Amino acid sequence: MMDRELKNRLADAFHAPEPEKKESFIKNLRPREIGIPEMIITQIPYIRFPIWLFSLLTAAVAMGGAVLGMEDTEFLITVLMPFNAAIAVFEAHRSRRYGMSELEMATRFSLRSVVFARLVILGIVSGIVLATASPVIAASFGRSTLLTAIRILIPYLITMMISLIIERSSLGRTHGYASFVIAGASLALMTWVYNCAPVILAGYEEFISVWGLPAMIILLAMTFAEQWKTVKNVEAFA
Amino acid sequence: MKLSVDRITKQYKNKIAVDRISFDLTEGVTGLLGANGAGKTTLMRMMSGILTPTGGEISADGIPVQSENYRALLGYLPQDFGYYPEFTAKEFLEYFSALKGIDRKRAKEKTKELLELVGLYDVAGKKIKTFSGGMKQRVGIAQALLNDPRILILDEPTAGLDPKERVRFRTLIEELGKNSIVLLSTHIVSDIEHIADRIIMMKDGALVWQGRQSDVEGDLEEFYLKRYE
Fold first, then answer.
1. Which of A191, A216, B5, B110 is deepest in the core (most CB within 10 A)?
2. Residue B111 counted as domain residue
3. Reported ipTM
């Protein structure tokens, strides 16, 4: 084995030659393969902090309410989740809002991938909030976890679906906060039903207990379809 | 590499923005001249894959324009662009490095290199919203160069640059043109007079002249103005 000092002296005495045609070599390298999961992960740091904070707040309300035995905890989460949907739709269209669409469309992964990644990330976050809140609330108040999850999820899915449809329209292009108006309307409607319309509330509870699961599956399918349309059409330019 | 534009057309309801334009580009700088509304930006958007043509085809060595492989070769600077308000110059370039599929280590190196190249290294940590128009344009130019593009499409890249920055930019483009296909649009003849090997002139969506600069008789500006009479 060569002695370290000798190695260092040789390195000092002889320099590697300058690379020839370095620039054209780099240009001719094929871009490395990047899978969809890796592409999605690269977008995680670019989801803004207040969005993570709102999801955390929703989960915290669920945990805190359940621990404190607040009867309205499920209602609170049910009205907060549509705002998580509104935030997801709003964030997904951030590129358009800040004039970044054209630049992002010309990159390797393009705007379509960026919007897809944002919807996937925020969908997973909402899923985690739901998966955390539902069993905790159900256990604290002696309810079925499945029915609790369905009651929380249905307003979320309806808000997401309507917001995505509106965002693709000219109304959504000119009124960037339309998804929050939908979430606000959802809040107002649910508050009215819970406090002032016991008959409608009873009917809704009956519907959930019998048809909740198939309704949720249908709404999930419809929401995925709207998300797919959004991703597909996001690069319809001019 | 050969970038082929074959009978490209873009029609809107009552207007033909680009009318059956064809040309081929190889390594070197091509200047795209035309007045406002000539169709330069529409053509460049189609060549960048962000606008679908009504007719015709664009490809680079057979790679179709609306494919990931084409975009991997591409650097594009639009005429107007925005930025996320929380981004610093460094973060902006790192964001686009991620979108261009550049790994983090290389992205950091390239970001530093390009910020030095465009003279923004000292303000790398400052938010873009605090920048002047010329500084924002330089950030845009830097992002177009992140992936060492083989095809560089620049739409009015000297807008907002002061005379010193314009000279520096022209030198940079001349250098890039040695190994890449560079298409540079402008309505200011002096931007390309000394650096473009080829000139393409557009008027009302149509191609009115194309050829080598050496084919231009006399002064380029006079020649260009004559085409518009």
1. B5
2. no
3. 0.91
**Domain count within chain B:** 1
H helices of A106-234, where? 110-141, 145-168, 170-174, 178-196, 198-233
Task: Find, in chain A, the residue whose alpha carbon is nearest to that of B175.
Answer: A23
User: How is the beta sheet containing B63-64 ordered, strand by strand?
Assistant: B16-25, B3-11, B55-60, B63-64
Residue B21 located in a structural domain: yes
Whether B129 is in a domain gets the answer no
Residues forming a β-bridge with B33: B186, B201
Q: What would the pLDDT profile of A34-81 be if each residue is shown by its tens digit?
A: 888 988 999 999 999 999 999 999 999 999 999 998 989 999 999 999
Which positions in chain B have a beta carbon within 8 angstroms of at least one beta carbon in chain A?
12, 45, 48-52, 68-69, 71-72, 74, 76, 78, 80-86, 95-96, 98-101, 103, 140, 143, 147-148, 150, 179-180
Residue B33 burial class via C-beta count within 10 angstroms: exposed 0-12, middle 13-18, buried 19 and up: buried
CB contact under 8 A, A110 and B71: yes
Residue contact A31–B86, C-beta within 8 A: no
Domain extent at residue B178: 3-82+150-227
With contact defined as beta carbons under 8 Å apart, do B48 and B153 qualify? yes
Paired tokens of B18: 């680009």
Which residues in chain B touch residue A48, judged by CB atoms under 8 angstroms apart? 86
CATH code of residue B64? 3.40.50.300
Strands B55-60 and B63-64: antiparallel
Yes or no, beta carbons of A235 and B71 under 8 Å apart:
no
Q: How far apart are CA B44 and CA B34, in angstroms?
A: 13
